[in-house]
Amino acid sequence: MRGATAAQTNGQEGERLRALGSAQVVELSGEVLARVVVDPALTERLSAGPHMSRDAARHWLGYREGAR
Q: Is the full-model pTM beyond 0.85?
């Protein structure tokens, strides 16, 4: 979108992802597949679980090595 602000384009992308479901697979640069969770309630439930971490450096080798 020409002349769009980051907030506008991010909002539009968020709307598109929410329409597809609460957790979608996306492709990041370098052909890395990740899951984006757009449902706040699901995010809270997942964050509270013992199998989730926000520490990318601890769990993602490519991140630690600077490859991604």
A: no
